[in-house]
Amino acid sequence: MDTQVIDFILRITTEALLMVVVVCGPPIIISMVVGLIISLFQAVTQIQEATLTFVPKMIVIFAALAAMGPWLGSSLVRFTQLCFEEFPKLMF
Question: Which residues neighbour 42 within 8 Å (Cβ) at sequence distance 6 or greater?
């Protein structure tokens, strides 16, 4: 294989893994914080309802995705454009 192809594959793989962290990180972190707050609330009030954690987390994750949607979408579009623009250059 050509070194240019290997460099491209390594670059795309690195950027793809970074993109996964960037896109998935904020909703997961927000969900963890909300889960911790709800767990503390349950421990203090001794309410042991399993569904109590699900609904607030779901609402907060949807709100976070709605708020960050344009930024996350533009990041994914930039990555996709990079892939489609760089890949044909390797063929010739």
Answer: 48, 49, 52, 53
* Measured distance CA(92)–CA(60) in Å, rounded: 48
Average pLDDT score over the chain: 89
Torsion of CA 48, 54, 60, 63, to 10 degrees: -160
Angstrom distance (rounded) from CA 92 to CA 88? 7
- Span 39-76, pLDDT tens digits: 899 889 888 887 888 888 899 999 999 999 999 999 99
The length of the chain, given as a count of residues: 92
- How is the chain split into domains, by residue range? 3-91
